[in-house]
Specification:
alpha/beta; Arylsulfatase, C-terminal domain; Alkaline Phosphatase, subunit A; eight-stranded mixed sheet; 17 strands
Length: 639
């Protein structure tokens, strides 16, 4: 009798919850197959993905249980429609661009008409799975309407019990997610790791979770720029000097190809330095003598690291301290260097061995004006170098990039981004050719970094040897630079002191400009400069007037060279360096607690002597942040 009573209650309960339960289970399956069909492998995170999607499914569909009659089906229909739209639109967009839609892209929906024909070719029977939730709601409604399977009503006690189950499922899934991130990062405030790798993010949390989170972030940021901020930007922009024209070296390289080689984690500390009697970067050392080497040059990255380096170089705007523009502001209006060159009949290309959506490049590159970007599928791994069997080594990358460059219509701009010297600096033993003794004063990571950067150095040298034999070499300007520091503190054990300013010595990266057949100076320059200055410098050399939105200076023509570096967490100014003055803040970020120095002898001055410089740079940083967060580039372009 008791068994029959339990069975009766169970049947009644199933009768009451089967539509929502079916939708939640289907939701987990939809997320799983979405990733599988697009080859987005969650790897060891498959259990976490199931728990997280189960939680989100409970949050989305669970409340349907507490609506009465028709309201229940209306609610489930709306949620199901939203879910189906997310799955189908994201699936088709990824198939088309190898990237994921962000809510900020909604204003570009009109552009989809132009690719309607392509979208038709991407339609597949797989998409029916993403419509199955709507079918379940329709079946549940028909069953209830026809009394085929009448949905039982809940008592108040059953509603409370069900609510607790839903809350438990949701809490457990998200709690599991947060714990996993704390274990990885030691920082519970960062809910999702690998923000740079959108595919990994979707693999861990599911596409629906990613889409909802992106929407919430967009809505919360849309009000981050106030009317006072806009007024400040407008007044600041009016006072900003117009870009100079026809300066020294203007047009000296007119019509030449422009090639950037962005080297992963390449610091100035290893240039022209030895480790236990051996040159760490012998090939780059030679190139510093063949061209012009900037020894007082700095990166200005924050949380975005490599993506921030690209952003600063291509836009001459500062990186954000609390966000990554590549991810959070990918659909802004930009007037990047590729766009400027494209307007002057250049083809614009980027080459890297990552998936197209790494650092959200597939979404932001069109905004920068890149015509084409070569990525993982355009290269063949003959010898894996890195953590996995598909990691493209720099040897393969350069060997396969050269014929691609030779086939491009000239003039062109091409950015080549290396990978092998990326943390965790895993290099096969036979490629570790820097002969270091068994006992050193190096930590393990420092030792591995030196081996990795030595390998990359040799492959850059091999590439340049081959490139010099092509017809392209004499018709190109080549810039080789490090994107950011190695985060290994390698400078200390190898005796690198830089300019002696402790706050930014680790951010010194090399910049080498090779300009064959052009009457540019050669040797070493100690002019303070940074990634912010590349845009105006190369535009001037190519004989192209750069826009007002540029915040950097032409290195060859500035009378007041300066570098401003901000704290990547607080956003406050860390250091300002000019030819005559330097300001270094204290740990608390309070201006008065910092120190003002006379350069280059670093003689201490009253801190007030740097106040004017500090306020000027603080206003520039503020203006840059407002432009990015408010999508207000037009205010700079047309004050």
């Amino acid at each position: 009798m008791i068994f029959n009573l339990i069975l009766q209650r169970l049947r009644r309960y199933v009768s009451a919850v089967w539509p929502e339960a079916s939708l939640i289970i289907l939701f987990v399956a939809q997320n799983f197959f979405f990733n599988r069909w697009l080859d987005i492998d969650p790897g060891l995170y498959v259990l976490r993905q199931i728990l997280v999607t189960l939680s989100l499914g409970a949050i989305l569909y669970g409340p349907g249980l507490f609506f009465k009659k028709l309201g229940r089906f209306i609610y489930l229909s709306v949620i199901s429609l939203v879910i189906s739209v997310i799955f189908i639109s994201q699936f088709l967009y990824y198939e088309y661009s190898r990237g994921f839609l962000q809510i900020s892209s909604i204003k570009y929906m009109g552009e989809s008409v132009a690719v309607a024909g392509t979208i038709k070719t991407l339609l597949t029977p797989c998409l029916f799975l993403f419509l199955a939730n709507i079918l379940i709601v329709c079946v549940a409604f028909m069953c209830s309407y026809k009394n085929i399977w009448k949905l039982a009503a809940f008592s108040d006690t059953e509603k409370i019990a069900t609510a607790l189950v839903i809350i438990f499922i949701a809490f457990y899934g998200y709690n599991f997610l947060v714990k996993a991130e704390v274990k990885e990062w030691g920082n519970s405030s960062r809910l999702y790791s690998d923000v740079y790798d959108i595919n990994a993010l979707v693999a861990k949390e599911g596409i629906a979770n990613f889409s909802f989170e992106d929407t919430i972030k967009f809505i919360s940021k849309s009000g981050s720029v106030t009317s006072q901020d806009k007024d400040f930007l407008e007044q600041w922009s009016k006072q900003k000097p117009e870009p100079p024209v026809f300066q020294k070296y203007f047009g000296i390289a007119k019509g030449k190809n422009l090639i950037f080689i962005q080297v992963e984690s390449l610091e100035s500390s290893v240039i022209n330095q030895k480790a236990y009697g051996q040159e760490i970067t012998p090939r780059l050392n030679q190139l510093t003598k063949e061209g012009l080497y900037f020894s007082n040059y700095y990166t200005q990255v924050c949380e975005g690291n490599t993506a921030d380096a690209e952003f600063v170089i291509l836009n001459s705007l500062y990186p954000l301290a609390d966000d990554v523009a590549f991810v959070d502001y990918a659909r802004n209006k930009y007037y990047a260097l590729p766009e400027l060159l494209k307007e002057n009949n250049y083809g614009t290309y980027s080459m890297h061995g990552d998936v197209p959506n790494f650092w959200n490049r597939s979404n932001i590159y069109p905004q920068f004006g890149y015509d084409t970007w070569f990525s993982e599928s355009d290269y063949t791994v003959t010898r894996p170098v890195g953590e996995g069997p598909s990691d493209l080594g720099d040897e393969d990358f350069f060997n396969q990039s050269l014929p691609k460059l030779e086939n491009l219509k000239q003039p062109f701009m091409a950015t080549l981004i290396t990978m092998s010297s990326h943390t965790p600096f895993i290099l096969p033993e036979d490629l570790q050719t820097l002969q270091l003794p068994s006992k050193t004063n190096l930590g393990q990571t420092q030792w591995e970094y030196l081996q990795s950067i030595h390998y990359t150095d040799s492959k850059i040298g091999d590439f340049m040897d081959k490139f010099k034999k092509t017809d392209l070499y004499d018709n190109s300007i080549i810039l080789i630079y490090g994107d950011h520091e190695s985060f290994t503190d390698i400078g200390k054990p190898i005796g690198f002191t830089g300019n002696g300013l402790e706050n930014i010595v680790k951010t010194q990266v090399p910049l080498i400009i090779l300009a064959p057949g052009i009457d540019l100076p050669k040797g070493t320059s100690d002019i303070p400069a940074s990634h912010l200055d590349i845009y105006p410098t190369v535009a001037n050399l190519l004989g192209i007037n750069y826009p007002r939105s540029v915040l950097g200076q032409d290195i060859f023509n500035t009378n007041n060279p300066s570098v401003t570096y901000r704290n990547s967490i607080s956003g406050k100014i860390n250091t300002i360096l000019t030819s005559s003055l330097a300001y270094e803040s204290n740990d608390d970020g309070v201006y008065e607690d910092g120190q003002c120095l006379k350069m280059p002898d670093k003689k201490s001055l009253p801190v007030g002597d740097c106040l004017g410089l500090y306020n000027q740079q603080q206003d520039t940083l503020k203006a840059s942040d407002i432009v990015i967060k408010g999508d207000l580039l037009n205010t700079l372009l047309n004050p």
